[in-house]
Amino acid sequence: MAKISTSNRHVEIIVGLLCLSSVLLETNGQTISVSQPLYTLTAPNCNPGTVVGSISATDSSNHPVYYFIPSPNNNVAVNVRTGALILINYIRPNTPYSIQIKALSSSGTVTANVTYSCVGSGTGPAFPSSGFPSSFGSTSSSSVSFTETLYTFATSTCAPGEPLGRTSVQEVTGCSYSLISSGPFFVVPSTGVVMVSGQLSGTETYTGVATARCGAASATARVIISTHCRSSLTTTTTPSSALKFTQNVFNFSTSSCSPGITVGMAAATNAVAYVLSPTSADFAIQQTSGLITSTSTLTEKSYTLTAQAYGASGNSTTATIVVSSPKCNTALEFTKPQYTFSPTNCNSDANVGQVALVGNPPGVTYSIDNPTGVYNVNGTTGTLTAVGVPVVGTLTIRASRGSRSATVPVTISTSSCPASSSSSETLSFNKTIYMFTPTSCAAGDILGTVTATSTSGSPIIYSISSGNQAVQVTSTTTGANLTPFVTIGEGNTSVIIMATDASGKTATSTAKISCPASNSR
User: Fold this and answer.
1) Are residues 368 and 463 in the same domain?
2) From CA 377, how far away is CA 464, in angstroms rounded?
3) Residues 315, 346 within the same domain
4) Are residues 349 and 306 in the same domain?
5) Rounded Cα–Cα distance for residues 68 and 319 (Å)
6) pLDDT tens digits for 327-361?
7) 97-105 β-sheet, strand order
8) The domain boundary residue, chosen from 295, 328, 361
9) 155 found inside a domain
10) Is residue 218, in this structure, part of any structural domain at all?
11) Which of 2, 333, 343, 359 is the most exposed place for a label (fewest CB within 10 A)?
């Protein structure tokens, strides 16, 4: 076995300490650590958007952990919350690349060294030695095309993390963007935002090609970036004070109340990661660009958020974001002060009409203030549907959204119903005359039961049309019971019962009652 000199041992000890410092960092008894000091990751292919692998860090106090690349590059990006490393450009197949990734929590920061590569046979774009295509231009396949054939961006700030502008394709979503450039720039894969990835200086012009891959289709566009940097800027480490939002307060206004709307960008110089602190149920921030988007249906209130940007050394700064939605602030208003529906389709369960609000705002729920069981309203669309055949009636429809609501009267007429739709419907009692001989006619006793039938199947209402006013009628599931509310004396009495169905049809029948001499219970 070869002997190790004292000086070599000394070097070995130093190296060991350096490795340990990248695995574990302790602050006030709290620690953050990565699972291993060196990761070797291999992507299954070399296409932009492919996940190469993941970095994992833990905080001893279970504080949230965020991941970022101290010096963003053209090849890979890291998911700030999950640690997933993603290709954002084509890289040379079977060629190892090295990068450092930092994990950040309130306990401190820790660094992991990563070597990554991809498996492939070079089927992607051919790269010259400069690292980008030897010819520039705009090409496309299938129906995908960029909104511009040439994008021109300029910067005088020249700081890493600065957004320069956005590339995008026409009328296609779900695309993955990449950028091959002659300078220190990269593009956010999910948004197409072009950003500075390294320190710039002087006045220069850089060229590049942006690529959008949308499923099997793809498109390319030329990119020219002009820099007009102050001569005092050098490639030395930027001081932490340079981490700064471009504004202390960002005021955004959105013209839509729907989720998924981009409301603005909160950009900071020298930022490598963005988060909302605390997180919001209504908005999200794009982790590498600072783009703010809505994640829920907005209401009439004004929203105040706090964006936090992190620098490469783990330092952070905050800015206030205020979002207003003017179109969501208006009171709910129906398109008409009242509605009158005269359906021509008068069959059972037919749609009779629809109510709607001005501007058709999202998140509205419709209901009936005075339900009769004859009509239903769709809570989402405001469409009225008959239960059985349509009948004459008046309803009050309410629209609710958040803390706001509005009502409107609705009148339904059957005057436009075809004669055939109602002439075939009948209502009749099962007897023309009922003969009842109860054992007692004391108050509350059941004297007898009558039954009417409607071929429409609609509900039937019973009432006493004429006769002995001491007799009352009570509806049951199968008909109606006749009961006196005071004791009826010995002898014969009679009443005429009327049945009315939901369409307004009526039928009558006579009930003759013979009460006994003794009406005691």
Assistant:
1) no
2) 33
3) no
4) no
5) 20
6) 665 578 888 999 999 888 777 778 889 999 877 77
7) 38-43, 108-118, 97-105, 66-68
8) 328
9) yes
10) yes
11) 2
Which residue's structure tokens are 């940007």?
309
Which of the two residues, 326 and 291, has the higher pLDDT score?
A: 291
Give the C-alpha separation, 147 to 144, whole Å. 10
Let me know if residue 124 belongs to a domain: no
Mean pLDDT of 256-270: 80
Q: Are residues 472 and 496 in the same domain?
A: yes
Count up the domains in the chain and report the number: 5
Is residue 69 pLDDT above 60, yes or no?
A: yes
The answer on 368 and 416 residing in a single domain is: yes
* Planar angle of CA 479, 480, 486, nearest 5 degrees: 170
According to DSSP, the β-strands at 139-140 and 217-228 are: antiparallel
CA dihedral 120, 123, 126, 130 (to 10 degrees): -20
Mean pLDDT of the chain: 77
| Residue-by-residue DSSP string for 252-315 | EE-S--STT-EEEE--EET-SEEEESS--SSEEE-TTT-EEEE-S---SS-EEEEEEEE-TTS-
Exposed/middle/buried for residue 245 (C-beta within 10 Å: 0-12, 13-18, 19+): buried
Instruction: Say if residue 99's pLDDT is above 50.
Output: yes
CA proximity to 165, closest of 210, 200, 220: 210
Token digits for 234? 């050098």
Q: Point out which residues pair with 189 in neighbouring strands.
A: none
Residues 6+ apart with CB under 8 A from 78: 55, 67, 68, 69, 84, 85, 86, 101
Question: What is the full DSSP assignment across 102-165?
Answer: EEEETTEEEEEEEEEEE---S-SPPP-TTSS-SS---EE-TT--BS-SEEEEEESS--TT-EEE
| Residue 521, token pair as written in the block | 């219970």
pLDDT-derived band at 313, boundaries 50, 70, 90: low
Which of helix, strand or coil describes residue 95?
Answer: coil
Residue where a domain stops, chosen among 207, 228, 249: 228
How many Å apart are CA 305 and CA 131, to the nearest integer?
41
Contact 194, 155 (CB under 8 A): no
Cα–Cα distance measured from residue 454 to residue 296, given in angstroms and rounded to the nearest whole number: 49
The reply to whether 57 falls in a domain is yes
* Residue 312 belongs to domain spanning: 240-328
Q: CATH code at 350? A: 2.60.40.60
Q: What is the helix (H) or strand (E) element at residue 366, kind and residue range?
A: strand 365-368
d(CA 407, CA 386): 20
Give me the DSSP letters along 443-493.
Answer: TT---EEE-EEETT---EEEEEEEE-TTEEEEE-SSSEEEEESS---SEEE
Same structural domain, 110 and 16: yes
